[in-house]
Amino acid sequence: MKKSALIWTGALFVLSVSSLSFSMCKPGNAKGEAVLAEANEKTALKSDTEVVKPSLPPLDTALFNAMLQRNANGDSSGKWPVKGAYPLPGAILPFKRVVSYYGNFYSKRMGVLGEYPEDVVIEKLKNEVKKWHAADTAVEVVPAIHYIALTAQGSPGEDGKYRLRMPAAHIERAINMAGKMNALVFLDIQVALSTLQEEVPRLEKWLKLPNVHFGIDPEFSMKTGKKPGSVIGTFDAADINWTTNYLAKLVKTYNLPPKILVVHRFTKAMVTNYQQIKLQPEVQIVMDMDGWGHQARKFNTYKQFVYKEPVQFTGFKIFYKNDLREANSHVLQPAEVLKLKPQPIYIQYQ
User: Fold this and answer.
1) CA atoms within 13 Å, Cβ hemisphere of 54
2) Which of 53, 73, 148, 162 is a plausible cystine mate for 255, CB 3.0–4.6 Å?
3) Sign of CA pseudo-dihedral 106, 107, 108, 114
4) 42-76 confidence digits (pLDDT tens)
């Protein structure tokens, strides 16, 4: 969460494959035909494993600045919007608001994705997208499937690290589900007693896809060695910087649009040294208010731990069930959340 940050932008990934241009002789010229034939042969011989590098439209900096200022929602503290360098072309934020469904296919308790059949999930998410667009027609709303690809566990497992990696088939299932509604994908990890350095590279085959983004959960990063769930975990700025560096390398290697990194947070200690978080054009960071409960509690959590420690963009989590556990509480509607300063640009439903 850094104030001396970079700026970012976006478009979901509007990709146009760039075409080769050849300097040729006039039609009918044998030399010109030979040049064209040679070029076509070289193109045809490209390896099937070679990544086709997309061409992205240039960044509209004027629109980016206007949308960033609008997202600050009239804040006069000087904290928002966060100022910095422009992002690479193809950035999603702040041009679009992301509305995601979160969960794991093994668990009905961890979120919507594991609670309902796929067709129900897709229909419910589409309805939420419509609600958010109706509440703020100036910002395009895009759906996302936010899948927990690594879950913290109550038992140590064979290696004593209290985490369970999801099978590749489940990750592919989440990606395929997103494809049915032209949605983004977020892969989320709860490292428990493992590390980002050990777990993130295992997801690279999916993270190098242009529509797949990432999330990390400090709550289950157990640096003290305690069992997940016994205490709230933490990530430091150094952990977040390592992650953004990794994602930035993928963006540069495969010529991708910028990645979004979601960092969940509902206490101060969950993220330490936020001023040292380094922003870069290849990655857009969202600090996501992850607390549940009465609406007043949720708004206060957002103000204390997201608003006061600005990084780049903000998110807000809505629980269909947990947010109803306290007296006189209700599931927040888009118009209520949009009153916040800054306005959350990433919305997650669990």
Assistant:
1) 17
2) 53
3) negative
4) 333 333 334 445 578 899 999 999 999 999 999 99
